[in-house]
Design brief:
Radius of gyration: 23 Å
Shape: globular
Number of strands: 16
Mean pLDDT: 88
Largest sheet: 8 strands, antiparallel
Helix content: 10-25%
Number of helices: 10
Number of domains: 1
Oligomer: single chain
Distance between the termini: 68 Å
Structural class: alpha+beta
Order of helices and strands: HEEEEEEEEEEHEEHEHEEHHHHHEH
Low-confidence stretches: 1-25
């Protein structure tokens, strides 16, 4: 009787633990500290050989920030943090250290548009006072103009050689970020307006021009979020029809770059990449806060967010080390090795769904997960580094959108995750199956051959087939006809 009571308590405890961490929300608020700073919270990272027609010689990299944006999130919406730096790092020689960094820094300029109120000029309290766009510099009715600079840094991100990326058409080095999608009345044709903010750019050290876009996009991650946190209130082994994408009405802010492959590769065709954000170490609050300086920030930068492969911090890193992981670099990932070689997730799933036929693999260390997340897969994207990076073999031919398989490499589509990650790769289902042993022999991991799913599906058809691939963001309001 005592043992039955103990087992019941154990099951309940593990179930509560499972429901208390953001398991399937990609990297949205995935660690206690970053949840306090949504402007610098990396949410998703994509790295893939460009499959837009005529772009076979390019790689596309997309780093998303600011999770779970509501289109109606006024009056201030989702401007970037001008004190932060947002970075994309590329390792091209297999040492888990950045060789190339794309660094972005935002600037928010207040136009302070006034209205004549009883003979006095009084500033308006809103982002805009009239229609915006479709032109890039149509700022007459925009109270806050968001812009940014982009640099390419070769070598160490802090002391390496840094050069400004410039507009290939105008030679300017300051780019305008489109205003967030306030609604159809403020921005009547947001799709055209946003496309006017895709820039052809000259990247120093690259023989061909690339592209850059920074702006709001429709959330591309797909998950049954409510069911997940209600003690996994769906059967991942059963009928998947009940799953819904509960964050389909959310937006994110994307940093997207299209770069010639020859500009990224080094000693071979395989690159590793990740994205980070950093803030000045010191912050001083003041009673005289202004628009330009709400707080005084100074000192060297401290990394506060890190992301490459999706769900790693959620599915594998223990709660006590989640903040530490966000502040760390791939070269130091040996400190987190136990979370990959001896993962807890499969055991938790067995406690919750063992009665439905789920059995966690009992093979340790989990060398299959080491290959998937820390070294790359043999004969596909493996390199010498043992580090958590999203790896891409740039020699793998891109697959057109109509022919892509949502389960990517699990369906013999080797141009997708974990060989990089495309927007339409169903990473939730892929990682659930890989964690359950999909890369192991059946006799060692029978659960790895189960069709495990959260029931919320995605594919390349849910995205555009041209840069920046992620869809036009949800508007705050659809105008009345």
């Amino acid at each position: 009787m005592k043992s039955i009571k103990y087992l019941s308590v154990l099951v309940l405890g593990i179930a509560l633990l499972f429901s208390s961490i953001p398991v399937f929300a990609s990297s949205h608020r995935e660690a206690p500290f970053i949840a306090e700073m949504p402007k610098v919270d990396g949410t998703d990272f994509y790295l893939f050989n460009s499959y837009e027609t005529g772009k076979e010689d390019f790689v596309t990299i997309i780093a998303n920030y600011q999770p779970l944006q509501d289109g109606y999130g006024g009056p201030n919406f989702f401007a970037l943090d001008p004190e932060a730096i947002y970075e994309i790092h590329v390792d091209n020689n297999g040492d888990a250290r950045e060789d190339i960094t794309f660094q972005f820094q935002a600037m928010n300029t207040l136009n302070a548009i006034p209205l004549d109120i009883g003979g006095k000029k009084v500033g308006i309290p809103f982002i805009n006072v009239g229609g915006i766009g479709p032109g890039v510099k149509d700022n007459m009715s925009t109270n806050v103009v968001e812009s940014y600079t982009a640099k390419v840094i070769r070598g160490n991100r802090r002391v390496g050689k840094a050069d400004l990326i410039s507009n290939a058409d105008t030679k300017e080095t300051v780019f305008i970020k489109p205003t967030d999608n306030i609604g159809d009345k403020s921005i009547p044709n947001y799709e055209t307006y946003a496309k006017n903010h895709i820039y052809n750019v000259n990247i120093p050290g690259c023989s061909k021009a690339g592209k850059v876009f920074v702006g709001q996009r429709k959330e591309g991650f797909v998950v049954d979020l409510g069911g997940t946190f209600d003690l996994v209130n769906f059967n991942p082994l059963g009928d998947p029809k009940g799953g819904i994408n509960q964050i389909a009405d959310k937006n994110v802010t994307s940093f997207a770059v299209e770069v010639p492959k020859s500009c990224l590769t080094g000693t071979g065709t395989i690159i590793g990449a990740w994205t980070t954000s950093s803030l000045p170490k010191s912050r001083l609050f003041s009673k005289t806060s202004t628009f330009e300086k709400p707080v005084l920030e100074r000192g060297p930068y401290a990394q506060v967010s890190r992301l490459s492969a999706p769900l790693v911090n959620e599915l594998f890193i223990g709660l006590k080390d989640k903040n530490k992981f966000n502040a760390s670099e791939p070269k130091d990932d040996s400190q987190f090795a136990d979370y990959v070689t001896n993962p807890t997730l499969p055991t938790i799933l067995e406690v919750l769904f063992g009665g439905a036929g789920y059995k966690a693999p009992a093979v340790f260390p989990r060398t299959d997960l080491v290959a998937a997340f820390l070294t790359g897969l043999k004969d596909l994207n493996q390199n010498s580094a043992v580090a958590e990076m999203l790896r891409l073999n740039t020699a793998t031919p891109a697959v057109p959108a109509a022919q892509q398989k949502p389960l990517a490499a699990l369906e013999s589509d080797n141009a997708g995750f974990p060989n990089g990650r495309r927007p339409g790769d169903d990473v939730v289902d892929i990682e659930l199956r890989v964690a359950s042993g999909a890369l192991l022999p059946t006799d060692q991991a029978p659960a790895g051959k189960l069709a495990i799913t959260d029931g919320a599906f995605t594919s390349a058809a849910d995205f555009d087939e041209t840069f920046p691939y992620l869809k036009t963001p949800n508007p705050g309001k659809v105008a009345s006809k």
